[in-house]
Amino acid sequence: MKTNKYLAIYQEISKGIEKGEFPPGRQLPSEHELAEHYRTSRETIRKALNLLAQNGFIQKIRGKGSIVLDLAKFDFPVSGLVSFKELASKLGKPWKTVVHELVRMAPDRFLQHELNITKNDMVWKVARIREINGEKIILDKDIFNEKFVPGLTKEICEDSIFEYIEDELGLKISFAKKEIVVEEPTEEDQRLLTLEGFHNVVVVKNHVYLDDASLLQYTESRHRPDKFRFVDFARRNH
Fold first, then answer.
1. Does domain 5-68 have CATH number 1.10.10.10?
2. Global pTM?
3. pLDDT higher than 90, residue 206
């Protein structure tokens, strides 16, 4: 059976991206140029580009055209509970944490609900920008119940809060409830992250518990969408 024209074009361009003929960050030729090159209609080219975008080869950015994505995404375990330091260390790439905000404060109603605390309790609010290979690709916004974490410093936050809690405070972090959503970037996301025209961010919301089921932390990790592949292992129950 004859392959549809747009599928043949998709396969040729995707193989070129995989071979490095179109390096990450490069802009593909315009729809008009591709239509002339392949001697076909712009509608056929548009179908091929849409398929490339759906399968993670390109990102269509308004005003910039079709930008080739980096296929070497970082695997982020959905069911695991790992710190950024642990994840970055496994990647073997240069990484850095920049503490944007560290403040001890009274919780508002939203945080009282998320951490199951009262207005008389205190929390730590920590905002950290995560860099890999010099690109700001994660904004972590953490809220810790001060009852379990009585003291935090900029140095601890730049290294690993999980490591501090477990090794210095002697607490055991046990499990988390996670929610993953896709949202439009906020003004803060656009200001603090290297978004490069991307019009969404992947947000992982965590409620983290200690081994006695005490609620330790509420966090929102806001990820640039082209840099991560969220992975899990699933088993069918019979």
1. yes
2. 0.70
3. yes
